[in-house]
Design brief:
about 0% strand, about 425 residues, 18 helices, about 80% helix, mainly alpha, Growth Hormone, Chain: A, globular
Length: about 425
């Protein structure tokens, strides 16, 4: 590889990670939006008061598949390479999402409709289990030592890009009147079909990206783990547990992006406004996340990550309360503070913060298994909080207390981690005995 190529590779890896995450989370967020606004009307018994809770639960089913997918895809990613697995996850997500757009409704085939919906959602979960872990591992291992947080943050910026695109494409659907049959028969399907376009573009970018030097070197020296899971649990079980608890922070995103939509509509906000809140907050996060990541490269991963957790808990009750006011400007301002200036700090830093806990031979597995088990909390947060009364009058209290409890757990877990910003990439995750 030439010197020019070596300079371009971190940028190319970051772009490929950004696009891959954009695909994954475009698909995830159109499902999440549809589960709050559309699916209760078409995939479950009409007029059933439990339809919203069941619909939000289908969103969570993907998170059941994710730990299983994490073990399988993490093993393969550490054995045969990051790039090959990332190509597989991309195609699997694209196929599952397109099929969702083709599914018959409850009126047409009864309970087989939600069953098929759940099966497709499980496919999405298997795909997502390997995407962020693989993309974060690949980008981290291609990045310069002093800019790992910045480059890996683009994996999570891709989630913002995907959510923005999903919300914008779903806006025309929400603007259709509820009594327009086109809304529930065909309009909602179009965003799912359009995902194929993003998949094709990302496939073209990702197919030429080569494996990171750290993985290639380990492969050449015969240091690839035969069963990465065994090595991971033997040498890094504390780090896996730490990542699981820290990954609870993702529940803030699903509460903000899915549950808040349903609560906002309940207290009188138009559906289109709730989606614009997501679009604007994520647009601002596209600018703030690289800044938080650059700050983490200067002062460390832990302080930035912990700030993100604490500020999310502090801002959330004010954001939820503002939805009941008549001041739309204040609602947007607090949405930006909560998500773009609070949660975005933790979101930007976690790919480097978690990834640097593991050595190269188990990094994919460690990231995948730790995050996907932790993300179970994020997946079921909307349905849990909805069942507790989070989408009823006064539900802002339930939502705020839930967020605060999650962020407290995350903060305590993060405090137990060691700081890794100054550790060279090739010695990450390696415990060097202290001379006595």
């Amino acid at each position: 590889m030439t010197e020019t190529d070596s300079r371009k590779t971190p940028i190319k890896a970051a772009l490929a990670s950004f696009m891959g995450s954009a695909v994954e989370y475009y698909d995830f967020f159109i499902f999440g939006t549809a589960s709050a606004l559309i699916f209760p009307h078409i995939f479950f018994p009409s007029g059933d008061d439990a339809a919203l809770v069941m619909s939000l639960a289908t969103f969570g089913f993907a998170y059941i598949a994710r730990p299983i997918g994490a073990v399988i895809l993490g093993h393969l990613g550490d054995r045969i390479g990051r790039q090959k697995i990332l190509m597989f996850t991309l195609v699997l997500m694209g196929v599952a999402t397109f099929i969702i757009g083709c599914l018959p409704t409850f009126e047409q085939i009864g309970w087989f409709a939600p069953i098929l919906l759940v099966l497709c959602r499980l496919m999405q979960g298997l795909s997502a289990a390997g995407e962020q872990a693989g993309a974060s591992s690949m980008t981290l291992e291609h990045a310069p030592d002093n800019r790992r947080s910045f480059f890996t943050s683009w994996t999570l910026s891709g989630t913002q890009g995907g959510q923005i695109l999903a919300a914008l494409i779903f806006l025309p659907v929400t603007l259709l009147p509820d009594d327009d049959p086109f809304k529930y028969e065909w309009a909602w399907r179009i965003p799912f079909w359009l995902s194929a376009v993003v998949v094709i573009v990302t496939f073209y970018i990702r197919r030429t990206l080569h494996e990171p030097p750290a993985f290639e070197e380990a492969k050449a020296q015969g240091e690839i783990a035969k069963v990465p899971l065994f090595d991971l649990l033997r040498d890094h079980w504390r780090d896996v547990l730490r990542v699981i608890l820290c990954a609870f922070i993702a529940a803030v995103s699903t509460v903000f992006g899915n549950l808040a939509i349903a609560y906002g509509v309940l207290v009188g906000l138009p559906q289109s406004i709730t989606l614009w809140l997501i679009v604007v907050a994520n647009l601002v996060a596209l600018g703030t996340q690289p800044l938080f990541a650059m700050l983490a490269d200067r002062i460390g991963r832990k302080p930035v990550f912990i700030y993100g957790a604490i500020s999310s808990a502090v801002f959330m009750p004010f954001y939820m309360l503002s939805m009941s006011s008549d001041n739309i400007f204040v609602v947007f301002l607090l949405a930006i503070l909560t998500f773009s200036c609070g949660y975005a700090a933790a979101n930007a830093v976690w790919p480097s913060f978690y990834g640097e806990m593991f050595s190269a031979k188990v990094r994919f597995s460690g990231l995948a298994i730790g995050t996907q088990i932790g993300f179970l909390m994020a997946g079921f947060a909307p349905s849990i909080v909805a069942a507790l009364g989070g989408v009823q009058e006064g539900g802002w209290v339930v939502i705020s207390l839930f967020t605060g409890a999650i962020c407290l757990i995350v903060t305590v877990a993060a405090l137990t981690a060691r700081e890794t910003k100054d550790v060279p990439t090739d010695t990450l995750g390696i415990r060097i005995p202290v001379a006595r």
